[in-house]
Queue: 3 jobs
Job 1
Amino acid sequence: MRHLDLLARLARPADTKIVLLVLDGVGDLATAAQPETALEAARTPNLDALAARASLGRIVPVAAGVTPGSGPGHLALFGYDPAAAENDIGRGVLEALGLGIPLGPDDVTARGNFATAGADGKLTDRRAGRIPTEECQRICARLNQALADFAGARVEVVPGEAHRFVLVLRGAGLSAAVDDTDPQALGVPPLPPRATAPAGETTAAIVARAVVVMERAIAAEPKANRVLLRGFSKLPHLRSMAELYRLRLGAFAGYPLYRGVASACGMEVVPCGKRIGEILETVAARWSDFDFFFLHVKQTDQAGEDGNLAAKVAAIEEVDAALPRLLALAPDVLAVTGDHSTPAPMKAHSFHPVPVLVASPVAFADRAERFDERAAIAGHLGTFPSRELLGLLLAHAGRLEKYGA
Amino acid sequence: MRHLDLLARLARPADTKIVLLVLDGVGDLATAAQPETALEAARTPNLDALAARASLGRIVPVAAGVTPGSGPGHLALFGYDPAAAENDIGRGVLEALGLGIPLGPDDVTARGNFATAGADGKLTDRRAGRIPTEECQRICARLNQALADFAGARVEVVPGEAHRFVLVLRGAGLSAAVDDTDPQALGVPPLPPRATAPAGETTAAIVARAVVVMERAIAAEPKANRVLLRGFSKLPHLRSMAELYRLRLGAFAGYPLYRGVASACGMEVVPCGKRIGEILETVAARWSDFDFFFLHVKQTDQAGEDGNLAAKVAAIEEVDAALPRLLALAPDVLAVTGDHSTPAPMKAHSFHPVPVLVASPVAFADRAERFDERAAIAGHLGTFPSRELLGLLLAHAGRLEKYGA
């Protein structure tokens, strides 16, 4: 039996609350040039106190050596096998869900960038100078006007942040088998949308016509005069965590992508701010409404991507300072971890295991002095696939029946 | 998705070099009678310095409790599941590849020993007094003359070292379903070649006739008057590492068996000497030709098989002394490990996990004081299946794309 099916079979309701606090990309590296990881360098009295009575360990998001994107990293934290084809969430779907766009099973979405090309059609800026969000909204409104009479499918664009938008196609017989039009390079024109399989040919032709309509409507824009599309995808049929585990799940994430994944897994997305303080305020207000709280802090990952150890340390210390407010809610199980490592020296997601801490009255007390990568190696939880964490959280919350007599 | 398929999907070219230095059988035991393992007893200042900035861990070649042969041990190091039926390399094929014999998909090979039997046909020496290699070559030449007119298949023998040779059968409809003729005991005659399945009956009959021809030709030899055959096998269809991972791979091994496995996995076998100094000389000369260098040192295993801890320590110290020459080539990733443990107290391969060290600019620095079995337990890499090492090496070399958005 697959792990997820086993857990679903054993899941039972209980009067316990689980908090999964994800510090995006929190895992870090110790190297000759950076002798301390962000967790090692941070002053974290509250996490340290928690570590003394919690179990520590490390999670491997996808597989040894594999660097996960945010989608697979979170799917694994939510108990799904991120390497299974049926759990593949495309970039377009992630972005669409994150923007709160309702998607049906037949709808096709793509992530869009506004871009700048010269008179020769060659790209000079793949992000249109990162135009302000308000500008993006204005341009998207104009595109939707231009697309109002479009034939063959209902086509809509939804503005995201800065130069980003989502393209949604609705209609019968649409396929996601369409290749990116973003050439991922400057000095060349955008690519034509090509079918990646025969089933995608009709949709590719529709997209090609839609791109013509859109680019005609923005031809006079100084910066955002072209559109680049990638990650054509449909909603995967993820089994709902609410049904699988008999939980009421709330997602408290300030950024679209994470709200998107949580929603696709059966969580209720609760609007909230982007910093831990704002997030905890919203959590406290909705404490009675859920059994499972997914809290997402983005700043650790952003700092890691910037190669800014000091900012990553500050983000961790901000969480540590807010921790007493979370503990005051008295969750039965509190897990602190990341969806992947984003080591500052690498300025990118990485494949390294991620430290995890699980506090609960039935957690083995590791008596670690710190919550960091080195302490995690020796922890009671060991090193295990991220997708097994959810079962451990349910177990620590008394939400799994005994298996067999 | 299987691990190997996932890695193949993510593999990308890069301008980085990976060295996998295999100290055959390096893993050892600490017991009451042998308080220090070979790695613990050896004076290894260079490996120790490397350990301080590298990640340590332990690999399990096949499965918990399973003692691997050299074939499975190396297949696992190269990323294949050694327990999967499709990855089974027979002894005959291993030896044939190691001798550089070109094998087609229909050819059947067996490992041969010259042996001595008395007038009563009973074996008195299963290795014919370990006759010199030149003697073996002379006898094989005579056998090939005798087999020149053989009907039913083209049959050839190729001399190996000392009393060893390889039998190759070429022709249509041949099967490897033939049992060993080596009784693995003295005082009994060689076994007749028997089919292990109906498909092998024709081939078994051909082998029986060939053995008669061969033994008639050497009947007057004082020592090598019989032949013992084992490991009838065909080339397995291993997917090429070169294609899977987009690497140029060079194998630098002084002994046939290891060259054979490497060749079957898609590596170019580079002729080289048997000791680390000679191997490194060849590696340096071919440094620009490959991305992945498999270096094989046999002496550690030989000493372990002999139960000679001092010799095993000396072999390790010889590698340590040569290490600066390898480091001077500045590989981006350097892994040091073994294909299995060959503890001196056991005088044989064993099932114990094998310490592994991975050095790279993105390796988590464990700050270990030594590279040995005890330090490896606490290392960042943890304990994992040998077949996952290759993915970690690719990851440390920046040769894997991110998985998902």
Job 2
Amino acid sequence: MPRLVEYAEAPPEVRAVFDEIKSARGVPDVNNFWKALAVDPPTLRRTWDSLRQVMAPGALDPLTKEMLYLAASMAAGCAYCTASHGAAARARGMTEAQFGELLAVVGMAAETNRLAEALRVPVDPAFD
Amino acid sequence: MPRLVEYAEAPPEVRAVFDEIKSARGVPDVNNFWKALAVDPPTLRRTWDSLRQVMAPGALDPLTKEMLYLAASMAAGCAYCTASHGAAARARGMTEAQFGELLAVVGMAAETNRLAEALRVPVDPAFD
Amino acid sequence: MPRLVEYAEAPPEVRAVFDEIKSARGVPDVNNFWKALAVDPPTLRRTWDSLRQVMAPGALDPLTKEMLYLAASMAAGCAYCTASHGAAARARGMTEAQFGELLAVVGMAAETNRLAEALRVPVDPAFD
Amino acid sequence: MPRLVEYAEAPPEVRAVFDEIKSARGVPDVNNFWKALAVDPPTLRRTWDSLRQVMAPGALDPLTKEMLYLAASMAAGCAYCTASHGAAARARGMTEAQFGELLAVVGMAAETNRLAEALRVPVDPAFD
Amino acid sequence: MPRLVEYAEAPPEVRAVFDEIKSARGVPDVNNFWKALAVDPPTLRRTWDSLRQVMAPGALDPLTKEMLYLAASMAAGCAYCTASHGAAARARGMTEAQFGELLAVVGMAAETNRLAEALRVPVDPAFD
Amino acid sequence: MPRLVEYAEAPPEVRAVFDEIKSARGVPDVNNFWKALAVDPPTLRRTWDSLRQVMAPGALDPLTKEMLYLAASMAAGCAYCTASHGAAARARGMTEAQFGELLAVVGMAAETNRLAEALRVPVDPAFD
């Protein structure tokens, strides 16, 4: 099994990030993703800082952002991310009916993405 | 250049789908994607029927569905689909600020997707 | 534009491969793929030798092999390969009706591939 | 583990699809893919209807279609689909020698797909 | 064509990033990537800050980092990134012989990646 | 579980390749990848011959080649290959600090690859 860095054995710069995550999310421990990323503390720090900035409320609300993250992760075929952002979206209020429709959209996109590329469809001038 | 089937030369079953698309969208002509897909009339018919069903308003509103489609297409690296669904989302009201945040989410997802898979992070039991 | 190595300027080890390709296929010149690959002569040689071996008639006939190559290239989203192996499959007898069905299969596979991964479906014991 | 909907707990519209699959395939139970997809009944119905239509005998015979599905699934890196369509192709008569050659074609396609894209090879005019 | 933000029309926060890039690289203008990313100034700023940090000399020298970036971009099939990081690696000293070997490694990786996944090879305990 | 061909049950042409791998690497047994690939002896032979040629010392040293292989495998999302080439790179001297920086480069590449494609950035003329 890959290495996961637990809080008790983590160096101070890792603990600092773990503490920020736990505080921001109100959880007693961080997810496995962060424990795995802690093998490289600068990447852990940069990823957390970027994620916090990108997922902050803005022109899009937090639930929409989580669903976009989930759709992109499904399209990229990342099993872990599909599971983690599926849980995060549900925690922000995504219903099972919304999940079903998101799944349907991602499936259709996968099919039409391949068809458009397989046929080398030229971009319509009106799109720009 | 790949073959595009124009209305004037299309067989009746293709014209029927083109007519439905033009009517549903209120446009004078269909996009290149449909003209390319018309090389196989059964796939054209099935894809249009599926797309219409999947993108209909439901538990998710039409703009959110378009943005999910756009995010999935970006994650899959389909240039045509990124252009066409970017235009469709803007037509449904996506602002440039919303597009910028969607882009940021897709970029972060791509990075963390690769990191999670590269480190083979085990799925947390709490996600299911 | 990327660099393409033409026969007139090619070193002897590149000309040798080009000659073999032209002879095996009965064509006056090689495709752009081989001219581009010639920037690294050992890769050109190895790729041609492997391709010739893999695509030789065996338990599968040459047309089926070309269609499998085309389907895999579509699934991987390679525009050049989709064009080149589409042409090669047609040269071996693929009809437009067969191409249409191949396209439909690749599209369905893309959709169900993403759905199966998004839902993290466990492999049925009966499959092995 | 992700949720799988079993027949005993399924709503009527899910049972109807399950019954059609079992009847069409002559099997006592459906595969995990369908049980997972049942979390969204409309997607289950649409996917089954599309798959049945796409995989029906036509210009290509059922074994060739299954092998194309398998090749596309391998190229897309879907482990579940590789297992399920590998089993389906064997059930339709694919020999181990044919499987070995299919595997070799998919491997070669993956390599040349990347090389063609990495070198940004321009499409030869003769391909269209 | 997609929108590119030129310096003359750029808002102050975009000009600030452009100035940093030009200064760090000693070039009179930034590449198209940065002009395109400028449609979302926060993403432009975050991407430049992250890239500068990640690509700084450390345990790996700058040429090795550029070649790793190039190999990853080739594997992901990004034509623009393959071109831009190919140029960057050459500017840092990558020879044509080194490029040829990098290309060969990426091609082999693509082939064995697909084979390993298609065969669902279990990870050897010794790897961890 | 997928089929793995063990030495004791392997036909002579498979044993010959296994013997070469064990001898070249000084190991008592081959990895699961080779045992799985042995279901198709010609693919086993061709893959081993190609890999040995591609990974031989040349313009790039063996450690750099292994790290490029690892980066490409991470970018392609192959879990097995990430594990096996991670172990191989460590065996050739890759430090944990180098691994961390490689991981960071692959993550950044994934993000900027998607951004460049999503924005359809035109290739700068200066890159060729």
Job 3
Amino acid sequence: MLKIGYLGPEGTYSSHATKLYDDENLKIPFNTINEVLSSLKSSETNQVVVPLENSINGSIVEVLDFLASKNNFHIVGELNIEINHSVYSLSSINNEDVKVVYSHPQALAQCYDYLINNFKNAKHKASNSTADSYNDLINSNEKGVFIGPPWMKDNEKIIVIAENVQSVKNNVTRFVVISDKNKIKKTISDKTSIVISFNEDSPGSLFKALEPMAKKNINMTKIESRPTKEKLGNYYFFIDIEGHFEDKDINECLTEIKEISSLKFLGSYPKFN
Amino acid sequence: MLKIGYLGPEGTYSSHATKLYDDENLKIPFNTINEVLSSLKSSETNQVVVPLENSINGSIVEVLDFLASKNNFHIVGELNIEINHSVYSLSSINNEDVKVVYSHPQALAQCYDYLINNFKNAKHKASNSTADSYNDLINSNEKGVFIGPPWMKDNEKIIVIAENVQSVKNNVTRFVVISDKNKIKKTISDKTSIVISFNEDSPGSLFKALEPMAKKNINMTKIESRPTKEKLGNYYFFIDIEGHFEDKDINECLTEIKEISSLKFLGSYPKFN
């Protein structure tokens, strides 16, 4: 049986993504993203499901740095999970009696407009995660509500007050599955991720590296620069393209880019719909 | 007198960056990044200081989206602020007597290794900001510590337990100053920010847009793609280059890029050292 690591605790978006990816194998929660990634290095896990980027808050740079570093792990899957905030209580309550709202500070900020319009007498209190905010309300000596993920409504002790209360729409987190197993097979619709860097820091380097893709009409779905930390002004470029490394075009393209840059192949994997 | 907006409350990294940028004018705190940005649109403020990207957590996408949208505001400055976490208490305390640690969940996560090694009996409790964690400890009925920014040691009621306790090094937030005033003058060392997009989604578009920069040997210090939300697979590219729009090379280059893309000039401003 495979061991799959993720950022706990149970009930968070990370645990939700992990269950959605796999419902057979052993899933192990860790306390921080770094512990999740380290579990792969120490062979404590075979695969990990980690957030890579959020449409509101940008990339999780610890994960980018792990992908760019020397190791033999590959991306074998991706999942896009919509982040939707619901307001819950433990018993029926009038808006004006809500004295406290618990949630992760990011969720509190994203629902700020709703909260000030609806709960005029409430303090906003931070929880460690949207899952923890439930426990914080149970242990609170004030009456109130908490903000949590949509699947919490399945809990019979919880009452739904409102759904989709965030001000910012299109809040999606892209999770990737990183694995110690070999490269994976071609499907009908794949994506390939690479990271490239240049020894010489000439302004035209990136331009030259994009030429093989442009000439072969390969679609680039992402490009992101990130400082290498080794030398000021020196960058990694994270690039996602459509296709699988077994496709003739992609294969030739990667070979050409390799001739003019340091290229690390991160993986080819099914595109998430 | 200018009115400068920032993300409050007092004592956070944002308020620190704002003071560093300006010590003369009126500074107005807001509750969310969106309120800060809206204050510029409603003329409640003339300038705002907002975080644009963090070296660990990536870009603040609300700010990127604001920059890319139709408006006449310009970036007029940048500041790079190092994020360093210190551990503080309210009275002298032995490590084993620490029952609770307060801070923003991001700070708790970044100091996780230090905390579990030093405070074996402590629960980690979330605060709304690193500035709030001080008040949370004051109001707590348990003995403990809190994690906050380095300048809190200037408060006479606070005792420094340890400094620089984060596991992740090189944690820097880049703030930008966005203004309603006109374009600003050339200095000895400037940066120019632009955002480009393409009507036609051909794979070679970005490649062609980078050509003028490559040919003129203009140094690109950042490139980041971001979905436009208008059409699936359609992207904005945020690009920073070295130089000022009054430089002949930069000016010609921007004109050439404009011929093959929709280009929004975001501003030329002094490079932060």
